Structures are given as structure tokens and as C-alpha cells.
Amino acid sequence: MPSETMTNPRADRVRDVAKLATRTARNRRRQFLAEGPQAVREALRLDAARRADGKEPAVVELYASEACLSRYPEIAHLAEATGLLRLADDDVLAAMADTVSPQGIVAVCPMLDVPLDAVLAARPRLIAVMCRVQDPGNAGTILRAADSAGADAVVLTSGSVDIYNPKAVRSTAGSLFHVPVVLAAETAALVEAARAAGLGVLAADGAGPLDLDILQDESAARRAGGVQASDAVAAGGGYRLEGPTAWLFGNEAQGLSEAEKALADHRVAVPLYGRAESLNVGTAATVCLYASARSQRR
Amino acid sequence: MPSETMTNPRADRVRDVAKLATRTARNRRRQFLAEGPQAVREALRLDAARRADGKEPAVVELYASEACLSRYPEIAHLAEATGLLRLADDDVLAAMADTVSPQGIVAVCPMLDVPLDAVLAARPRLIAVMCRVQDPGNAGTILRAADSAGADAVVLTSGSVDIYNPKAVRSTAGSLFHVPVVLAAETAALVEAARAAGLGVLAADGAGPLDLDILQDESAARRAGGVQASDAVAAGGGYRLEGPTAWLFGNEAQGLSEAEKALADHRVAVPLYGRAESLNVGTAATVCLYASARSQRR
Asked: Which residues form the RNA 2-O ribose methyltransferase substrate binding domain (chains A, B) (predicted)?
């Protein structure tokens, strides 16, 4: 355990960390902030796995209060193993963090995004693509839902929110350190590459002609050996939800553009059983990704 | 169309409307604010339906800019039919509203919540219960997801966020005017009454022993006539997801309490296929409610 505790919230080092709240500083340094026990623990777990594999670190600076380390023994153990840990008091941690209360721990992490080619080379079965999603909370929620549904990667197209924005990082609840993320993809090129890698492409579109429930029913019926090929073509367009799929999710206000929809194999609507006119993009993405996961895994 | 336009943001009437941003004023007057075209349109549609049935109004004051009324002819038509419409400029509307930009329209609405008995008397098949959910955005998202999934009612237990909070109202995207809402229910009494009304009670619990996918599979197999009774009892605890169900969803930080979980027939986990440790409550509620809706309707 390091003996000296940082107590000056106006120290240069503290200011340098705090600057990562701005996109300019993040992009210049190719670093971002993880705040709070949940995010930092997942960063440290990834870091430990990478170091064990001789890969580049996932954490490069680490600041925590003694109270936090006492409260979370697993984090304390991982933190000490990095050799990076510096103790800091609550004023210093608050000055570093974007949140009012970083709950006693802050890490500086190198950006994690990977090239699209690397993702596609790993033969993914489920990819979530955010097309110009703007709200950091929505982006983080979709990334977390993609992780929950076992997606192999998440893509944010150019014009999307910065996933390294502190609010987005918080909303991922650590999933940013679990799922490969591809940034600033151009949608048409992305769809072409995904298709070449064997993925079908579905656009989530509330006005789409295909009903997600029909796709799920047909997938279940094929599993049970009972579907008629002609029925499938009539109702579900012949799309196999159990196959590898990239889902496109649109901007929260405008949805997918006509050009984006035209890129997909099919436009698929989540059924609305009540009187809601639409789902928010996070909710729609959750239902679509879980439908794919379920069809792929049963 | 009324001829005089309100232009003084410091007028008493404007201040009175603005005060509805506080819970104290809302509870004293039993009124709340709907802001923006989507929420106000749904309020006006409900109001028109109620007036046609000779029931109490759903809107009692209505303020809009000429630009907004020109842009949304359906809203203008509904607004004029109320006889309540007053024109206001953007400064007045901004002073009335909680949002920075109310997009040109604000309505004052009487509170909508109904007694639990009235909901249960209508023989509901799907109810979403929020147990001490604290974040207004989460509460609104769950209400909207419940509407989308065709739920018959939403219940907020005592200790939950005020659903009439402007941020919660916005997050419902109009669904607050679609789905009956019951407020301040005491969870144990609610569960007892729901059970007496023929509903099964499921607790959404990430650590629960039943897997939501198993419940869905068994429900589908019963539909197809292929399930073995003994298998069903072994895996899904014999619960029929196609039957009337009340789902309990817990506080975002702590989940459901042990006492709340103990009230349910079963504790059910949404499967986590990836490495996420948990789902946020809005995501979990969406998956659970859609699973019930799908089992009930196929």
C-alpha cells in the first residue's frame, strides 16, 4: 500500500485527470476516465487479464481513498497488483471526477475501441450498431444491454455520441470493459463488410413490415422442425433470426434514416401491444438483441 | 382561435403553472404539467375521450404558441375543441415549463391515478409494479415499456419516485395518459389483492432460481401441446407465463428487498448471456413484460 495520500485538489496531476471530462483532452491523449467501484473493478479485471497475456494495459493511472479500498477487498487486491495505486482524499477524487461523488475511486484508461476488421475476423454472431445515437445515457444502456444479450461487438457510427463521455461510461455499468467497441464507422461500408463476413443485417424500425414476434416464432418452429418454407417466406421474409445478425438502431429523435434503412436486409418492428406509439431506442434495442440471443441459443 | 397572446413571463398565472414543477404544489392542487407536443397530444386525446363519455376532464389549462399549433394540426384541432386554449409566446412557455424548451405547448392536467380496487376489478392480465424505483427517467421508461407491452396497469409502491415529476412525465412519452396508474401501494397488501384477483406474482431478481427463458419455452411448448408436466415442474416451477401476472421490479440500486421477494410466487432472472453482472431495472422490466405479453398473446 502506498503511504502518501494526495490532498491537494489543485495539483497539476489532479487537473490533468479532470481534463478527461472534455472530449478534446480525451482524443488528444487517447485516454478516458472510469469512475466508481463498478466501472473501475471491471477496468482492473480487464487490465489483469491483458497483463497476464502480455498485452497493453487497460488502466494507466489509479486513485482511490482508503475507505473505498477497505470496503471493496477485491478492488484493493486488483489495484495493488497494478503497481499504479495512489491514495487520495475525497476532495482530490471529487476534483478528478465528472460525478459529484466518484465513490472513492477513479482510473485513467487507454481508449478501448478496436478496428471493425478485427471484430469481423472473430466471426461474430451478434452485433449492435448505433446509428447516430446522441444521448450518452442511451448509448451506455444499449452497450450494457448488448453485453447482457451476449453480443460480440457494439458499433457506433460517425455522428454518434462519444462512448468515452463520463455519463456514457457510467451508463455502461462496466460493460464498456467487456464488449469490443468499434467507433466512427461509416454505415454503408460497415453493412457491406458485415454482410461479407456472413452477417444478416436488420434495421429496427417501428414502421417496418416485419414483426419481431413472427421472426421469433418461425425460428422456434424451424428448431422444432415444423415450419413450412412457404409460410416462412410469406410472413417473416425468410430471415433466420437464429443466424448471425447485425442490428441497426437509429437516432433517438429521428430513428434510422431512409438511407440507413435501405442498407438492411429487412426492416423489423418490435410489436406494440398497447397504445404507445413507439419504444425508446434503448428499450427497442433490448427487445431486439434478446430476441436474437434467444433464437441463437435455444 | 383566441386572439390575445400572453407575453408576460412574470404574470401570476404563469407562476402558478410553473409551481407545478414542485411536488408540494402538485399534491396540494392534485395537478401536474404535461410539456411538449407528444405528451400534450396524448393528454388531449384522453381528454376528448373522457368528455365524450361525460367524465372528468384530463386537461384543465392549455397554453401554446401559434407556431406550435401551425406545425401540429391535430393538436390544434384537439386544443380548440377544449375551449381552454390560450396563446402564449416562447418566453411565457419557457417560464411555465420545467424543460428548457417545452416546444411550444404546455398543459395542466388533473392527476390520473386510480385506486387499486378499480384496476383489479377490470380483470387485468399484466401489471407492472415498481417497488421503490427512485429515478424519474427509469420510472417513465418502465411505464412506457409497460404500455408498449400492453400492460393493463402500472403500480408504484410507497417510497417510489413521484410519477408526476416533470422528468418522469417526459420519459413516459405520453404513455402516462394510456395506462392506469396506481400510486403509493403498500407492497404486501398489493400482492395479496392481486393474488385474490387471480394474478400470479413474479419477482424480477437477477439472482432468482428460475430462468425467464425456461418459462417462455415451457409456455410455448404447452401451446404446442408438447410439454411434460413433470418437466415443467422441474425446470419452470410449474408457473404459467401465459397466465395473468403481476411483475415486481425493484429499486435501481438495491433491487427488491428480501421481504418483497418473499411475497412473490417465484423469483425469476433474465438470463445474462454475456459478462454483464446485471441489467438496469428499465431493461429488465422491458424483457420481462415483453416475455409475458408474448406468452399471453401467441
From this structure: 33-115
User: Quick one: which of A187, A184, A116 has its CA closest to A153?
Assistant: A116
Give chain A's end-to-end CA distance (angstroms, integer): 48
Instruction: Dump the DSSP string for B109-129.
Output: EE-----HHHHHHT--SEEEE
Phi and psi, residue A109, nearest 5° = -125, 140
Contacts of B145 in chain A (CB under 8 A): 279, 283
Which of A91, A110, A129 is the last residue in one of the domains?
A110
- B275 CB near a chain A CB, below 8 Å? yes
- Write down which residue in B110, B134, B163 finishes a domain: B110
Structural domain including A173 reads 116-297
pLDDT over 60 (residue B46): yes
pLDDT at A139: 96
Q: What is the mean pLDDT of residues B199-204?
A: 98
pLDDT (tens digit, 9 = 90+) per residue, B65-88?
Answer: 999 999 999 999 999 999 999 999
Whether A173 and A88 share a structural domain:
no
Residue A270 has pLDDT above 50, yes or no: yes
Domain identity same for A133 and A253: yes
Indicate yes or no: CB of B141 within 8 angstroms of CB of A220.
no
Nearest to B178 among A148, A275, A290 (CB): A275
- One DSSP character per residue, B80-92 reads HHHT-EEEE-HHH
Confidence grade of residue B232 (pLDDT, cut at 50, 70, 90): very low
Partner A contacted by B213 (CB < 8 A): yes
Residue type, B184: A
